[in-house]
Specification:
binds NADPH dihydro-nicotinamide-adenine-dinucleotide phosphate; binds (2S)-3,4-dihydro-2H-pyrrole-2-carboxylic acid; 13 helices; ProC C-terminal domain-like fold; eight-stranded mixed sheet; globular; 2 domains; about 280 residues; single chain; alpha/beta
């Protein structure tokens, strides 16, 4: 994949140089994507200065300059900014327009941007920064296969990527992968607090939780034939400690808690699609 991404021979720009753009840029550079083929645009300079210093990419405060430079334009501003930012830009029709924004559907993006060529939606997540991202890609029927595959190639270079068939599935990708790193960090925070309450140092708490999470995630990935429930059962000795902890989580309705959280993310994406 690394070789393919090096041979892509396209310029990419990021409109909005915030957290998610920075994560994807970091991942692309780590994979060897040429830094002079990336440009980021942002109204304020500190983030641009950091990106230029860390990754040697091109930077500008002029969104149109970035659009004119690129073959692939990644719109990465907050959803509430999208209409304003798009309507100030002129896109020639040979450019591939991509949005990573939650809750803004292709037909809205198309009307904001007056871009009559097909638009692709990508829903990435921040672990893209270390090559462990997970992205969902939605391309409507009128997007040509080569452009869809180019986005699959780009996002696969910073992690894994799947194509979703229906635009609504992007909201499910948000609930399961776009937003979910925050759920895992929240669980880590809660566990760290309790380890400290039990008398250990924050540093010890951090390494215990970090390594347990990393080990569990890696074990899931390296055991494709084992269901998550089997991996859980393998930890749970009859009459032992894990059984008590798991019982406590189940009594607190962990399934309902997670379902409710994920439904809330989807509901918010649906609201945003009407709001912005
Ligand atoms: N963070 C995440 O995990 C994920 C985010 N996304 C999507 O990515 C998009 C960006 O999110 P995120 O990176 O978290 O947000 P950030 O707020 O970190 O980044 C948004 C960036 O847009 C910049 N910006 C503001 N106005 C303009 C403008 N007129 N022209 C160009 N840039 C502008 C902001 O600059 P300044 O700060 O100087 O105002 C900021 O750097 C959102 O649409 C979100 O839905 C998708 C998946 C995951
Ligand atoms: O919180 C958000 O709206 C964005 C989309 C997925 C992750 N961050």
């Amino acid at each position: 994949m690394s070789q393919l991404i090096n041979n892509l021979n396209k310029n990419i720009c990021f409109i909005g140089a915030g957290n998610m753009s920075t994560a994807i840029i970091a991942g692309l550079i780590k994979k060897g994507f040429p830094s002079d083929k990336i440009m980021a645009s942002n109204p304020s300079t500190p983030k641009l200065d950091t990106l230029a210093a860390d990754f040697r990419i091109k930077v500008t405060q002029d969104n149109q300059e970035a659009v004119d430079f690129a073959n692939i334009i990644i719109m990465a501003v907050k959803p509430q900014m999208m209409q304003q930012v798009c309507s100030d830009l002129v896109f020639s029709q040979d450019k591939v327009l991509v949005s990573i924004a939650a809750g803004i559907k292709v037909d809205r993006l198309s009307s904001f941007s007056r871009h009559t060529s097909p638009i692709i939606r990508v829903m990435p997540n921040t672990p893209s920064a270390i090559g462990l991202g997970m992205s969902g890609i939605y391309a409507s029927d009128d997007v040509n296969e080569a452009d869809t595959q180019m986005l699959v190639q780009i996002m696969s270079s910073v992690g894994k990527a799947i194509i979703v068939k229906n635009e609504e599935d992007i909201d499910t990708v948000i609930a399961a992968a776009g937003s979910s790193p925050a759920y895992f960090f929240l669980i880590a925070e809660a566990m760290q607090k309790e380890v400290i309450n039990m008398g250990m140092s924050p540093e010890q708490a951090r390494i215990l939780i970090e390594q347990a999470m990393l080990g569990s995630a890696t074990l899931m990935q390296q055991s494709p034939s084992l269901e998550f429930c089997t991996l859980r059962a393998n930890v749970t000795s009859k009459g032992g400690t894990t059984a008590k902890a798991v019982e406590s989580l189940q009594q607190s309705n962990i399934n309902d808690i997670m379902a409710k959280a994920m439904r809330s993310a989807v509901k918010r994406a649906q609201e945003m699609s009407k709001q912005f």
